[in-house]
Design brief:
Blueprint lengths: L2 H19 L5 H19 L7 H21 L6 H20 L2 H15 L4 H8 L1
Helix pairs in contact: 1-2, 1-4, 2-3, 2-4, 2-5
């Protein structure tokens, strides 16, 4: 991937993380972190970087709680523990984008889009097999 594009994508995620840490986030910031989390897991699954199932499950719980809190109260934030979890994910995401080939990033992005469109992860796994 061109370095300028990687820098742009990473900056968006870092800005979202900072906004959520300061309690100044919004639905878009939470969505950006959620997408980065999913892409991190998909790229790790493809062999680029490390992310454990437990790490992703815990992060999913953190971001789900942030979405619920944001919708209910209008406060879009991460507590200190949630911030630390997502800071680790964002750092992994940065390294993945800098090291993974464009084809791997494109494949992970395509899988994310299919997931957002309603295709289950099980359906995607069957197609890959």
């Amino acid at each position: 991937m061109p370095r300028a594009e990687v820098d742009r994508l990473c900056l968006q995620v870092h800005i979202a993380l900072d906004a959520m840490r300061r309690g100044m986030g919004n639905a878009g910031a939470a969505q950006t972190l959620c997408q980065a989390m999913i892409l991190t897991g998909l790229l790790a699954e493809a062999g680029y970087g490390e992310a454990t199932f437990e790490q992703m499950r815990d992060a999913e719980n953190v971001i789900s709680a942030a979405f619920d809190r944001g919708r209910d109260s209008g406060v879009w934030s991460l507590d200190e523990d949630g911030f630390r979890q997502f800071a680790t994910i964002v750092s992994t995401y940065d390294r993945q984008l800098r090291r993974a080939p464009l084809a791997a990033v494109a494949d992970a992005s395509d899988r994310l889009e299919r997931f957002r469109a309603g295709e289950s992860l099980d359906q995607m796994a069957r197609k890959r097999a």
